[in-house]
Amino acid sequence: MKISGAKNAALPILASSLLGGECVITNVPRVVDVTTMCKLLNMMGAWVSVEDSRVVIHAEHIHSTEAPYDLVRKMRASVLVLGPLLARWGEATVSLPGGCAIGTRPVDLHLAGLTKLGAEVSVEHGYIRAKAARLTGARIYLDMPTVTGTENLMMAACLAEGTTLIENAAKEPEVIDLAASLIKRGARIVGAGSDVITIEGVHELRGMDHEVIPDRIEAGTFLIAGSITGGDVCVDRCLPRHLEAVTMKLREMGSKVNEEKESVRLKSVGRPNGLDVKTFTYPGFPTDMQAQMMALMCVSDGTSVISETIFESRFMHVPELCRMGADIKVDGHHAVVNGKATLTGAPVMASDLRASAGLILAGLAAEGETEVSRVYHLDRGYEHIEDKLRDLGATIRRVKAA
Ligand code: UD1
To answer: Hey, whose CA ends up nearest to atom 22 of ligand 1?
Structure first.
């Protein structure tokens, strides 16, 4: 089963097209968040062409530097246009993202970093307004290694005058992929993937041709689909080293996991064992795999504990899993899961993107039929998930809500 391009790498790379030049981006997943980003760039006046997984963008002339509430409300990652707009076009007006199903999710570190780069930043009437004739390099220390914050600041610093240091930067593979695409365009970036990124500003960036890295979260989700059904699943066109936090846990739970250069195969061996997982920034266990891992723990042998350290309320899937017979108790940032031999199918409701994947996985293992509603969350980040699961032998179909 082939893994699509990473949504979380594609989104900042698409946003970075606002920095100039012709950008040809391939292996872009066809998911709703990508469509939303393309729509936003198009609304600003960029020329955008999408053909399957290839997106071409020219942003030589734009007529708006605003990201309206309607789009940001649908996708928080719209805030990724802030850095490039400010650096290249001298101003940006971006709706302030509100809270969401997984927590309050502030963007204060993005704004503090841009202020350090010399921007005038204010929040008025629900909008972030930022202005700068030309940004100037600075030393920025992030209190938290925020992923999109690191990306926004790295993009902004590319065209700033002088050198910028981002300390306590996010180390996620998606940050490295964005940096790689910017370096192809003439950006001078060193250290992406470590916790200090140095960017020496240049006057302009050219275009590039860039293939987005595979989606490690999609790959991890399908490996868990294999384990939860006692099956044998091979995910192709992925980067096994990006999946290590997940594959290590799956091995500890008893599965056989074999890695090749660009594929991972999981073979189940009996019922998985329960174990403890703590979400952490990369290379730790990804919070975006927490709901899927919890679904697996629900049918594992013994007790498991999940500690969620990234987002404060990312347990919205718990009551839904309990509707399917799971035994889970939440205490603050921790969830204790007592594994059951079986779950039973039930109507359940998705609260966010990864929660919906967790519920689908639980449904694959449950006796009887499970109906997951609000699957529009799923379409934000998974490409044809039901077709891919059907190809692996699942009985799954999409039905129109009554
Ligand atoms: C990105 C991913 C998302 C993933 C998350 C954590 C994209 C498009 N989204 O989201 O799928 O779940 O990383 O791996 O790449 N924080 C602040 N102030 C800020 C920014 C963040 O306090 O200005 C806090 C957040 O509330 C959270 C933590 O930092 O507790 C990490 O969030 P962050 O890394 O920023 O997540 P996103 O970049 O929004």
So the answer is: 106
